[in-house]
Design brief:
By secondary structure, this protein is mainly α. The protein has a domain of 73 residues. α12 runs antiparallel to α13. It is globular, with a radius of gyration of 20 Å.
Length: 242
């Protein structure tokens, strides 16, 4: 499909009533057609990975076209320069999260950009940093704990930012890191306690919400079970090696 084909199809699915509802959930109305994510995914599925198509869709300025652009761009070959350009265009939390979670976190640049963007003064750039951290904690299964634990001091440092979309993303990153395994859980809980002790209004909310989940019976039981299964697997491997 060409960019013109995709844009024409997006316009055919436009639903102005949905735009009003999306606005109530904090989604920008600028250039928004009111199309559901399942429909956008179905359109993207009919497109191959296509760098030129992704650029054209993003540059169209249409909200939903940006979603599709992220879906058709190749995270393995996208350049850091392009990601830096795209992140500056973000003006809505849903595109921000689609861009960060499942895309930036799957690129070779996720860790570097998450650290860099966390220092930005721009609300959605900063949200992108923490959404990328959350995505890395979930999707980068092979990363050593140290790669994720480096984010905890950053989350603590920025926890005083009381902008809604920033604090929620910082909380998201903290919780996802803390749900990765028992060691990360312990470190994330310690960070949450430090954030709470720092005493900022947004920090107290971030910490309280994270601690409630990270200390919950459900999370602790799942992490204990995963640790036991991992230990059992290693023991069987050692036995087989003999």
């Amino acid at each position: 499909m060409t960019a013109e084909d995709v844009l024409a199809e997006l316009r055919r699915h436009a639903n102005p009533k949905n735009v009003e509802g999306m606005a109530r959930f904090g989604i920008s109305s600028d250039g928004t057609l009111g199309i559901s994510l399942p429909t956008l995914r179905a359109i993207a599925k009919r497109c191959a990975r296509d760098h030129a198509l992704a650029l054209a869709l993003w540059d169209s300025g249409i909200h939903e076209a940006k979603h599709v652009a992220v879906m058709v761009e190749d995270p393995k070959t996208v350049t850091k320069k392009q990601l830096e350009s795209w992140v500056r265009d973000l003006d809505s939390w849903d595109v921000c999260d689609g861009f960060s979670w499942g895309f930036v976190d799957r690129t070779p640049h996720g860790y570097d950009l998450a650290m860099k963007w966390s220092r930005s003064k721009r609300e959605f750039v900063k949200r992108a940093a923490f959404a990328t951290m959350a995505g890395l904690a979930v999707h980068d299964k092979k990363a050593p704990d140290e790669q994720l634990l480096q984010f905890l001091p950053v989350i603590r440092c920025e926890a005083g930012d009381d902008r809604n979309f920033v604090r929620k993303a910082a909380n998201w990153a903290l919780r996802q890191i803390g749900k990765r395994n028992l060691a990360c859980n312990k470190a994330a809980i310690a960070t949450a306690e430090q954030i709470r002790a720092d005493g900022t209004k947004s920090g107290r909310w971030i910490a309280a919400d994270a601690l409630r989940e990270l200390r919950s019976e459900a999370v602790q039981a799942r992490l204990e079970a995963a640790a036991s299964a991992s230990a059992g697997g290693k023991a069987r491997s050692r036995h087989s090696a003999k």
